[in-house]
């Protein structure tokens, strides 16, 4: 029924955020994260980068107060939809997809909280090592690449007006 209403009355607010989610995924797939940053180019490594970039966007939307709550929730829905599709493509069946999605949402929430705290207390390296490298110590250079990249992305997102971000703009 929701699809009928969307067709009758145009795109929903959630659908309007699809370009922003696309930017999140494209940013997470940038080769520099995997080459210079030595993030494992695996299913887990790609998930970790999507979760990190999405977390930065969600933190930016938190800064919008009430005006960022619905867009953040819709982006989380798009994330779930994307992860559901990824799992099904890999042959995960209906019976266990929900459990996997639940763990992924828990991981996203954990990363969101960890990054929020790390940006406030300046201990980003530990959060990156734990959540992106999954405890496998990266080289100093690789860690610096990812840390500096996440900080730069956070700063670019902060400089972008909230309305532009919600409209699908992505900081250069």
Number of domains: 1
Output the structural class. mainly alpha
What is the count of β-strands?
0
Largest sheet: none
Question: Radius of gyration in whole Å, from Cα?
Answer: 16 Å
How far the N terminus sits from the C terminus, by CA atoms, comes to: 38 Å
Helix content: over 70%
Residue stretches low in confidence (pLDDT < 50, at least 5 long) are: 4-10
Please state the oligomeric state of the protein chains shown: single chain
Query: Which range does the strand content fall in?
Result: under 5%
Please state the overall shape, judged from the principal axes of the Cα atoms. globular
Counting H and I runs of at least 4 residues, what is the number of helices? 10
**Could you report the average pLDDT, rounded to the nearest whole number?**
88
Order of helices and strands: HHHHHHHHHH
């Amino acid at each position: 029924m929701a699809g009928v209403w969307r067709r009758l009355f145009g795109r929903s607010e959630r659908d309007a955020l699809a370009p922003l989610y696309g930017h999140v995924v494209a940013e997470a797939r940038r080769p520099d994260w995997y080459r210079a940053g030595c993030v494992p180019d695996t299913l887990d490594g790609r998930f970790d980068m999507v979760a990190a970039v999405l977390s930065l966007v969600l933190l930016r939307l938190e800064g919008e107060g009430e005006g960022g709550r619905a867009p953040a929730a819709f982006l989380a829905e798009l994330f779930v939809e994307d992860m559901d599709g990824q799992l099904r493509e890999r042959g995960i069946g209906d019976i266990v997809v929900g459990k996997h999605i639940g763990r992924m949402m828990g991981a996203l929430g954990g990363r969101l909280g960890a990054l929020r705290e790390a940006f406030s207390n300046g201990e980003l390296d530990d959060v990156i090592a734990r959540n992106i490298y999954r405890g496998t110590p990266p080289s100093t250079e690789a860690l610096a690449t990812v840390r500096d990249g996440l900080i730069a992305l956070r700063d670019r997102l902060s400089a972008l007006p909230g309305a532009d971000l919600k409209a699908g703009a992505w900081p250069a």
